[in-house]
Hints:
GO terms for molecular function: oxidoreductase activity. InterPro entries: NAD(P)-bd_dom_sf (IPR036291), Sc_DH/Rdtase_CS (IPR020904), SDR_fam (IPR002347). Keywords: Oxidoreductase. This is 3alpha(Or 20beta)-hydroxysteroid dehydrogenase. The chain is of the alpha/beta class and 259 residues long. It has a single domain (8-243), classed as NAD(P)-binding Rossmann-like Domain (Rossmann fold). Helix content is 40%, strand content 15%. It has a 7-stranded parallel beta sheet, sandwiched between helices. The longest helix is centred in the middle third of the chain and has 28 residues, at 102-129. The radius of gyration is 18 Å and the shape is globular. The N and C termini lie far apart (45 Å). Residues 12-13, 15-19, 37-39, 59-62, 87-90, 111, 138, 140, 183, 185-186, 188-191 line the site of nicotinamide-adenine-dinucleotide (NAD).
Amino acid sequence: MSRFEKQTVLVTGGAGGQGASHVRALHAEGADVVIADIDAERGAGLAAELGDGARFVRLDVSREESWAAAVAETEKAFGALTILVNNAGVQNPPALIESTDRATWTRILDINLTGTFLGIKAAAPALRRAGGGSIINIASTMGIGGTAFYAPYVASKWAVRGLTQTAALELGRDNIRVNAIHPGVVATPFITEPAAGSDAPIADFYSPEPFAVPRLGQPADITALLLFLTSPQAAFITGAEYVIDGGLLLGPALRKEAA
Ligand SMILES: NC(=O)c1ccc[n+]([C@@H]2O[C@H](COP(=O)([O-])OP(=O)(O)OC[C@H]3O[C@@H](n4cnc5c(N)ncnc54)[C@H](O)[C@@H]3O)[C@@H](O)[C@H]2O)c1
């Protein structure tokens, strides 16, 4: 399949988890891919595994100068950038708001929100030079409602929604679409390993059993939606938000025996 032939895609946080799944699928469908991540070992390893049409670029999404270099390297390697996936994100260690220190708040907002802002800012001129393209911002179901103990993360993902809509309005006439994806709980190190500063991973406390689709999300679930949204089939979709959570936000499904 070559749905993404002649497309150049930059995926932040592309070295692992959902980002790596997006990278693999886009590359398999013909795109040139730039794996942009702070994890040089895994990122370079994935680029080497994929071979032609794949590059690793070290990027800390919270640093503006890092973004300028990543976009420049992408254009140098593959020509015009046509798709940006703002996927890199980090979780805060669980804590009440009153026990959350300012440094944690700032770190989470810097990466999840400011990183997405800087990505749009750096990529928009490149996408315009390409004649148009698409931006996907990965938010979260935690950006739809409140979640106790996760205030920095929740606030960062809510804000990404406003940024997505605003960017869609600003860039639409340049043929650049901007959409957001809200994954539920997805089986990646994000939930199977403790967040920096905490001892236990989210997976220790979470069970999908009560929900309509009683399983964890897999990176491939999210990738399937991302491929649709970045493809020409989605040409009329912008400023939109897609919840992909197996029914998590619907709340517990009643058991048949209870009917
Ligand atoms: N896994 C879930 O349950 C879940 C649910 C909803 C939303 N999300 C969101 O999905 C996105 C991907 O998460 P994941 O599950 O793949 O997590 P993950 O922890 O498996 O992967 C995150 C990747 O981002 C990279 N990264 C971290 N900080 C970075 C920085 N400053 N600059 C560049 N790269 C950085 C990491 O090295 C890693 O490769 C995140 O935005 C996350 O908030 C995840």
